[in-house]
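Please decode residue identities from the backbone states below.
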């Protein structure tokens, strides 16, 4: 249980003591669980914000939900212990084999799971969502540099600089042979002056053809005076359009929009499975830090993951510079998993039905996710 929730429940407990047992038990049915054979074993799988924290004392939305149920069933902290598993698949298999008494995580209700474990009533409506870069706040300097380095602007600049050097070398070579003192004096025997003269000619269209002695050079200056203005105008237009196109936020309103965008998913996740079945090409990643880097660099248009997890990551600013897209797909529900024919199913279901409508549960969700 997180620090915020511990304070929240402490305040609630003080209020309940002050106002009497009727208020304290208003969301609890008259059921109990026999733990005379030993503490219950609660299996978990790390999945923020549903399960996080340490292995022995986890916290998170699913843990808070279970502790509400346990309190109603008359179970204290000594009546159950937590065991963490590496993946949802391992957690489900352990539950099916009876190695744990119940399983907590973002476990979706699906046919594959239902064939080997039982589920209590669902407690959370889930779906897959997307986040996209949030450019409404304006691009910072780092983002702007990222766009420049991931566009063709640098190639254009390099081409212009190369052309400027080429023009400088041509004039320097021709005018040195003609004995033009303007191109023979100064650093490196006039090359420095030739570079400055060429830069003004190429980038501003400024140049005096009568400073040159060769007739070919004079005609070339006249040509470049007209061409230079066109080059700079085109260069400005290319930079503006390139940055503008990269600043446009991707429109993701339908599944068809995903097919034309660069979408990233976490490997071996529900999003990876769904996109594979839908035939959508995606970029697989291993961690949220990689997602953040690629979003900052403009390497991906969107990231698909559990919508609730995305809301948590955005709300707690674990991922920054992003916002939720309106599109959600693959609606599902999360539930507590139990071994087949578990005696815990009925008391958990009775308790769960009353807790779901209780303001305490709504406040817990608000604490983790805020508002969409």
């Amino acid at each position: 249980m997180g620090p915020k929730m511990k304070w929240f429940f402490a305040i609630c407990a003080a209020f309940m003591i002050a106002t009497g047992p009727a208020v304290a038990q208003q969301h609890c049915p008259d059921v109990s669980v026999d733990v005379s054979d030993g503490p219950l074993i609660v299996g978990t799988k790390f999945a923020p914000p549903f399960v996080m924290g340490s292995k022995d004392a986890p916290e998170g939305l699913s843990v808070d939900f279970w502790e509400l149920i346990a309190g109603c069933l008359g179970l204290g902290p000594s009546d159950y212990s937590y065991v963490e598993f590496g993946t949802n698949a391992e957690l489900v298999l352990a539950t099916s084999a009876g190695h744990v008494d119940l399983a907590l995580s973002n476990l979706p209700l699906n046919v594959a799971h239902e064939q080997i474990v039982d589920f209590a009533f669902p407690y959370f409506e889930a779906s897959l969502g997307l986040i996209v870069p949030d450019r409404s706040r304006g691009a910072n300097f780092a983002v702007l540099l990222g766009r420049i380095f991931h566009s063709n602007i640098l190639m254009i600049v390099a081409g212009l600089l190369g052309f400027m050097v080429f023009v400088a070398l041509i004039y320097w070579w021709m005018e040195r042979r003609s004995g033009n003192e303007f191109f023979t004096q100064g650093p490196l025997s006039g090359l420095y002056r030739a570079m400055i003269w060429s830069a003004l000619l190429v980038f501003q269209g400024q140049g005096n053809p009568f400073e040159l002695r060769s007739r070919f050079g004079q005609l070339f200056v006249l040509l470049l005076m007209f061409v230079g203005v066109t080059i700079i105008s085109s260069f400005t237009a290319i930079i503006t359009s390139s940055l503008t196109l990269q600043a446009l936020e991707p429109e993701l309103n339908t599944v068809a929009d995903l097919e034309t965008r660069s979408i990233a998913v976490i490997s071996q996740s529900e999003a990876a499975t769904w996109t594979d079945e839908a035939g959508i090409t995606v970029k697989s990643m291993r961690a949220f830090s990689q997602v953040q880097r690629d979003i900052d660099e403009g390497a991906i248009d969107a990231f698909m993951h559990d919508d609730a997890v995305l809301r948590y990551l955005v709300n707690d600013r674990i991922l920054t510079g992003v916002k939720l897209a309106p599109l959600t797909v693959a609606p599902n529900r999360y539930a507590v998993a139990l071994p087949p024919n578990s005696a815990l199913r009925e008391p958990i279901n009775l308790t769960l039905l009353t807790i779901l409508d209780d303001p305490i549960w709504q406040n817990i969700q608000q604490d983790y996710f805020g508002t969409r």
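Observation: Residues 61 and 365 are 7 Å apart (CA to CA).
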